[in-house]
Please model this.
Amino acid sequence: MMRFLAVGLGGFVGAVARYGLSSLVTRLTRGAFPYGTLVVNVIGCLAIGGLLAWFEGQELPNDSARLFMVVGVLGSFTTFSTFGNDTLEAFRMGAYSAGFMNIGLNVIVGLAAVLVGRMAVGQLITAAAGS
Model:
């Protein structure tokens, strides 16, 4: 149960931090480019790289701190950091095809899923309005 609590509390912290930082950057830049998302993703990638390197050298009595920070805070702050770490780990292990497949599938299938979701809900809304 403590593991779930660590992830849940970290998730709250990460979600609030993401919203706050992304909103701030968006207000400051006022452009068409989503700088808020970019800043959050880059900071998340930097943080997961640093934290995982630090945790590798630590003897933790349990993994609650790792779960709180990596899965909870950063998982909620940005899943892009996990994507970046998974891809880098594949490359580090010499699994280049898996790394490139991870990039391609996440980007292409992810974008396609957003499109399909938008189209499906749009059709449901149109159908409901016509009834």
In short: The mean pLDDT is 89. The helical segments are 2-29, 35-56, 64-77, 80-92, 96-130. DSSP finds five helices and no strands in the chain. Residues 41 and 123 are 32 Å apart (CA to CA).
